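JOB MANIFEST
job_type = single_chain_structure
chain_count = 1
residues = 152
[input]
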Amino acid sequence: MGENEKEQRARVHEAQHLRSYTLLDAARERARKAWGYSSVEARHIMTEQCHTRSKGTISPHEWQLDIAECLILGIDCELIAPTGSGKTIAFMLPLFYWQWAQKKMEASGEEKSSEMQGPSGKDKKEKPKVLIIVSPLNALVTDQVCGSDVFI
């Protein structure tokens, strides 16, 4: 691969990176106006829960929190990273946030139900969230299950 091709790929990557963060920032603002979402609070909750549930052994990286926020806000996202980099954690973090939001809603005396208020609108109720991870390898599934046990 020549230098020009490397430079061109780097420029394309940077443009995609900027576009992704522009979309994330816009979604944060829409959610803030629609249902009082706070990125700072969400990231703090997910970080705290990850750290607490792993007994202090795991603290999420910024990119994992970015992916988690995309999922909370309903943004389609794609995550490409090598084995062992922490992709599973990025997809588990929203569960911590949704669980916190459900407990907060119940504690405030809001309507108790199997549904919770969510990002798709003020009046629309959303069902509790479920995480499904599809893996092509049995060994990888076993590793993910063992690794996620620390959070349960």
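[summary]
The chain has a mean pLDDT of 83.
The chain has five helices and two strands.
exit_status = 0
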